[in-house]
Amino acid sequence: MAHEDNGTHLIFQNALHSEHSQHIGIIVRTTETVVDFGCVFPANLVVSIESGINVISTSVEVVLAEKRGSVTLKMDAYEDELFETPITVDSVLFTPAPFYVRVWLHENSNFAVQLDRCWATAAQAADSSPSFEFITDGCGVSEQIEEDEMEIISNGVNQISIFRINSFTWTDLPDSTIHLHCDIKLCDPIEEDCEPSCGPSARRRRDTYSDDSTEHTHRMSSGPIYVQRHL
Hints:
Layout: E1 2-5, E2 9-24, E3 27-42, E4 57-63, E5 70-78, E6 92-94, E7 98-105, E8 112-121, E9 131-136, E10 139-140, H1 142-146, E11 150-154, E12 160-166, E13 175-187, H2 202-205, E14 218-228
Parallel strand pairs: 6-14
Antiparallel strand pairs: 1-2, 2-3, 4-5, 5-7, 7-12, 8-9, 8-13, 9-10, 11-12, 13-14
Protein backbone atom coordinates (compact mmCIF):
# COMPACT_ATOMS: atom_id res chain seq x y z
CA MET A 1 0.00 0.00 0.00
CA ALA A 2 1.27 3.44 -0.93
CA HIS A 3 0.28 6.64 0.83
CA GLU A 4 1.05 10.33 0.68
CA ASP A 5 0.21 13.52 2.56
CA ASN A 6 -0.45 16.63 0.47
CA GLY A 7 -0.90 18.85 3.50
CA THR A 8 -4.68 18.79 3.60
CA HIS A 9 -5.49 15.15 2.88
CA LEU A 10 -4.05 11.68 3.44
CA ILE A 11 -4.12 9.59 0.27
CA PHE A 12 -3.89 5.78 0.35
CA GLN A 13 -3.51 3.70 -2.82
CA ASN A 14 -3.55 -0.04 -3.33
CA ALA A 15 -4.47 -2.68 -5.90
CA LEU A 16 -6.33 -5.98 -6.00
CA HIS A 17 -4.72 -8.63 -8.15
CA SER A 18 -6.22 -11.97 -9.23
CA GLU A 19 -5.47 -14.68 -11.78
CA HIS A 20 -7.80 -17.26 -13.27
CA SER A 21 -6.34 -20.20 -15.18
CA GLN A 22 -8.35 -22.34 -17.60
CA HIS A 23 -6.86 -25.67 -18.61
CA ILE A 24 -7.88 -26.88 -22.07
CA GLY A 25 -6.08 -30.04 -22.91
CA ILE A 26 -2.44 -29.29 -23.09
CA ILE A 27 -2.86 -25.53 -23.03
CA VAL A 28 -3.64 -23.08 -20.30
CA ARG A 29 -5.23 -19.68 -20.63
CA THR A 30 -4.65 -17.27 -17.77
CA THR A 31 -6.77 -14.20 -17.22
CA GLU A 32 -5.28 -11.54 -15.00
CA THR A 33 -7.39 -8.87 -13.31
CA VAL A 34 -5.94 -5.80 -11.62
CA VAL A 35 -8.17 -3.30 -9.82
CA ASP A 36 -6.57 -0.10 -8.58
CA PHE A 37 -8.31 1.75 -5.75
CA GLY A 38 -7.59 4.52 -3.29
CA CYS A 39 -9.01 6.39 -0.31
CA VAL A 40 -8.71 10.05 0.64
CA PHE A 41 -9.20 11.34 4.20
CA PRO A 42 -8.98 14.89 5.57
CA ALA A 43 -5.73 15.38 7.47
CA ASN A 44 -7.64 17.09 10.30
CA LEU A 45 -10.67 15.09 11.37
CA VAL A 46 -12.84 16.16 14.31
CA VAL A 47 -14.80 13.38 15.99
CA SER A 48 -17.68 14.18 18.32
CA ILE A 49 -18.73 11.63 20.93
CA GLU A 50 -22.03 12.55 22.50
CA SER A 51 -21.66 10.16 25.43
CA GLY A 52 -18.42 11.88 26.40
CA ILE A 53 -20.29 15.06 27.37
CA ASN A 54 -21.47 14.77 30.95
CA VAL A 55 -24.58 16.91 30.87
CA ILE A 56 -26.12 17.87 34.20
CA SER A 57 -29.49 16.20 33.82
CA THR A 58 -31.72 14.06 36.01
CA SER A 59 -34.82 12.01 35.42
CA VAL A 60 -37.40 10.28 37.58
CA GLU A 61 -40.14 7.81 36.73
CA VAL A 62 -43.56 8.80 38.02
CA VAL A 63 -46.12 6.05 38.50
CA LEU A 64 -49.58 7.46 37.84
CA ALA A 65 -52.59 6.72 39.98
CA GLU A 66 -55.50 4.52 38.95
CA LYS A 67 -53.25 2.21 36.93
CA ARG A 68 -52.64 4.82 34.23
CA GLY A 69 -49.06 3.71 33.69
CA SER A 70 -46.02 5.88 34.23
CA VAL A 71 -44.24 8.89 32.76
CA THR A 72 -40.69 10.19 33.00
CA LEU A 73 -39.88 13.64 34.32
CA LYS A 74 -36.59 15.19 33.24
CA MET A 75 -34.72 18.19 34.61
CA ASP A 76 -31.76 19.85 32.91
CA ALA A 77 -29.95 23.19 32.85
CA TYR A 78 -28.59 25.31 29.99
CA GLU A 79 -26.50 28.43 29.60
CA ASP A 80 -28.77 29.97 26.96
CA GLU A 81 -32.47 30.58 26.47
CA LEU A 82 -32.51 28.57 23.23
CA PHE A 83 -31.40 25.47 25.16
CA GLU A 84 -28.48 24.85 22.83
CA THR A 85 -25.59 24.94 25.34
CA PRO A 86 -26.12 22.43 28.15
CA ILE A 87 -24.45 22.93 31.50
CA THR A 88 -22.03 20.05 32.04
CA VAL A 89 -19.87 18.89 34.93
CA ASP A 90 -17.04 20.89 33.37
CA SER A 91 -19.01 24.14 32.98
CA VAL A 92 -18.16 27.16 35.13
CA LEU A 93 -20.52 30.14 35.33
CA PHE A 94 -19.39 33.60 36.38
CA THR A 95 -21.82 35.68 38.40
CA PRO A 96 -24.30 37.02 37.56
CA ALA A 97 -24.56 35.07 34.29
CA PRO A 98 -28.08 33.64 33.89
CA PHE A 99 -28.85 30.00 33.36
CA TYR A 100 -32.05 28.31 32.28
CA VAL A 101 -33.70 25.26 33.79
CA ARG A 102 -36.47 23.19 32.26
CA VAL A 103 -38.52 20.39 33.77
CA TRP A 104 -40.39 18.38 31.20
CA LEU A 105 -42.26 15.20 30.48
CA HIS A 106 -40.36 12.86 28.21
CA GLU A 107 -43.50 11.22 26.83
CA ASN A 108 -46.49 12.80 25.16
CA SER A 109 -49.07 13.31 27.86
CA ASN A 110 -52.12 15.39 28.70
CA PHE A 111 -50.53 16.43 31.99
CA ALA A 112 -49.07 19.86 32.59
CA VAL A 113 -45.89 20.22 34.65
CA GLN A 114 -46.20 22.46 37.72
CA LEU A 115 -43.20 23.81 39.60
CA ASP A 116 -44.59 24.13 43.12
CA ARG A 117 -41.39 25.00 44.98
CA CYS A 118 -37.75 25.38 43.89
CA TRP A 119 -34.64 26.16 45.90
CA ALA A 120 -30.87 25.86 45.83
CA THR A 121 -28.40 24.42 48.30
CA ALA A 122 -24.63 24.44 48.56
CA ALA A 123 -24.52 20.73 49.35
CA GLN A 124 -26.21 17.88 47.55
CA ALA A 125 -28.86 17.15 50.18
CA ALA A 126 -32.13 19.00 49.56
CA ASP A 127 -32.59 19.78 53.26
CA SER A 128 -29.04 21.02 53.84
CA SER A 129 -27.90 24.54 54.74
CA PRO A 130 -27.33 27.09 53.40
CA SER A 131 -30.38 27.09 51.14
CA PHE A 132 -32.03 29.71 48.96
CA GLU A 133 -35.68 29.42 47.90
CA PHE A 134 -36.71 31.26 44.74
CA ILE A 135 -40.06 29.66 43.77
CA THR A 136 -42.83 29.33 46.36
CA ASP A 137 -46.39 28.11 45.71
CA GLY A 138 -45.71 28.12 41.98
CA CYS A 139 -44.59 31.77 41.92
CA GLY A 140 -41.20 33.42 41.89
CA VAL A 141 -40.13 35.10 45.13
CA SER A 142 -41.22 38.72 44.69
CA GLU A 143 -37.85 40.29 45.53
CA GLN A 144 -36.11 38.16 42.93
CA ILE A 145 -38.75 38.91 40.30
CA GLU A 146 -38.72 42.66 40.95
CA GLU A 147 -34.93 42.85 40.68
CA ASP A 148 -34.99 40.68 37.53
CA GLU A 149 -32.78 38.10 39.23
CA MET A 150 -35.11 35.33 38.12
CA GLU A 151 -38.06 34.78 35.81
CA ILE A 152 -40.61 32.04 35.46
CA ILE A 153 -40.96 31.66 31.71
CA SER A 154 -43.55 28.88 31.78
CA ASN A 155 -45.21 26.98 34.61
CA GLY A 156 -48.27 24.74 34.51
CA VAL A 157 -49.07 25.65 30.90
CA ASN A 158 -48.02 22.43 29.18
CA GLN A 159 -45.55 19.57 29.42
CA ILE A 160 -42.55 21.87 29.92
CA SER A 161 -41.90 24.32 32.74
CA ILE A 162 -38.99 26.74 32.40
CA PHE A 163 -37.35 29.32 34.62
CA ARG A 164 -34.33 31.60 34.39
CA ILE A 165 -32.20 32.53 37.38
CA ASN A 166 -29.05 34.59 37.60
CA SER A 167 -26.08 32.68 38.98
CA PHE A 168 -24.80 33.48 42.45
CA THR A 169 -22.25 32.34 45.00
CA TRP A 170 -22.68 31.63 48.67
CA THR A 171 -21.44 34.15 51.21
CA ASP A 172 -17.69 33.81 51.88
CA LEU A 173 -17.43 31.24 49.09
CA PRO A 174 -16.19 32.93 45.88
CA ASP A 175 -16.03 29.49 44.26
CA SER A 176 -19.36 27.81 44.89
CA THR A 177 -21.50 24.88 43.87
CA ILE A 178 -25.25 25.09 43.36
CA HIS A 179 -27.56 22.12 43.71
CA LEU A 180 -31.09 22.72 42.44
CA HIS A 181 -34.20 21.11 43.89
CA CYS A 182 -37.83 21.38 42.81
CA ASP A 183 -41.08 19.95 44.13
CA ILE A 184 -43.13 19.18 41.03
CA LYS A 185 -46.75 18.26 40.42
CA LEU A 186 -48.43 16.77 37.39
CA CYS A 187 -51.67 18.60 36.75
CA ASP A 188 -54.64 17.55 34.63
CA PRO A 189 -55.78 20.72 32.81
CA ILE A 190 -59.18 19.17 32.14
CA GLU A 191 -59.93 18.91 35.84
CA GLU A 192 -58.19 21.97 37.29
CA ASP A 193 -56.53 25.30 36.63
CA CYS A 194 -52.90 24.28 36.24
CA GLU A 195 -51.22 27.67 35.78
CA PRO A 196 -50.60 29.40 39.12
CA SER A 197 -51.67 33.02 39.36
CA CYS A 198 -48.88 35.27 40.57
CA GLY A 199 -49.25 38.91 41.54
CA PRO A 200 -51.60 41.03 43.66
CA SER A 201 -54.54 38.64 43.23
CA ALA A 202 -52.48 35.50 43.72
CA ARG A 203 -53.68 34.76 47.26
CA ARG A 204 -57.33 34.77 46.24
CA ARG A 205 -56.92 32.80 43.03
CA ARG A 206 -54.42 30.32 44.37
CA ASP A 207 -57.29 28.49 46.06
CA THR A 208 -57.80 26.75 42.69
CA TYR A 209 -54.12 25.83 42.77
CA SER A 210 -54.63 23.38 45.61
CA ASP A 211 -53.17 20.09 46.73
CA ASP A 212 -56.56 18.42 46.82
CA SER A 213 -57.00 17.92 43.09
CA THR A 214 -53.42 17.62 41.83
CA GLU A 215 -51.17 14.60 41.72
CA HIS A 216 -48.67 13.96 44.49
CA THR A 217 -45.55 16.10 44.66
CA HIS A 218 -42.39 14.69 43.11
CA ARG A 219 -38.99 16.03 44.12
CA MET A 220 -36.19 16.37 41.61
CA SER A 221 -32.62 17.52 42.17
CA SER A 222 -29.88 18.49 39.74
CA GLY A 223 -26.29 19.59 40.05
CA PRO A 224 -23.69 20.52 40.93
CA ILE A 225 -23.42 23.72 38.91
CA TYR A 226 -20.06 25.39 39.44
CA VAL A 227 -20.08 29.16 39.87
CA GLN A 228 -17.27 31.66 40.41
CA ARG A 229 -17.61 35.19 41.62
CA HIS A 230 -16.94 37.66 38.84
CA LEU A 231 -14.12 39.90 40.09
